Amino acid sequence: MLKLSLPLRLQLSLVIVVGAALLNHHAWYCLGVxxxxxxxxxxxxxxxxxxxxxxxxxxxxxxxxxxxxxxxERASFLLVRSLVCLVxxxxxxxxxxxxxxxxxxxxxxxxxxxxxxxxxAGQYMEILLSxxxxxxxxxxxxxxxxxxxxxxxxxxxxxGALYLRSLDRAERVYAAMVTRGYNGQLPIDSPLRxxxxxxxxxxxxxxxxxxxxxxxx
Length: 217
Hints:
By secondary structure, this protein is mainly alpha-helical.
């Protein structure tokens, strides 16, 4: 895995995503550049291919339902651009160590309250995903193997149980945070090093050049 600090990895991922999102429509050559960068980013981070493919398949099915009514030409560009953004961010998230989302937010240039809300939301998402994993493992132990069996098992009652289990665990996590001195503010401020700032500036400059070029083609 590429040895970069978590804040730097997050900001480089955001540079790729923001640059691709601002591309002019039907600028396929510039989108191809971002696609190559996204694939290179996934290779540098050593993302698990099977997990990445599973996530992309589910996300693209949902996005295709939203994009196809816009017309085939417009929808195809939007789907490929969304694929580039998803490859980039999923590569970052799948290689993120457990409980390190707050570390990744340290260098993000956003207000502190927003950082705290994002950190708590990320923590609760980890709780929810861990509960889903435990329920899937429990279903497999009961002989319900395969995707179809899991979908039959995930009835409305099980979704309600998942919500209650996640809520109870989130309350216990919050109580533990209060016990350890949490007062509504998190020590998440940590500036980037000069070399990391330079890398971010270079990345933004490259992204700006590629994105602006898409409006001149």
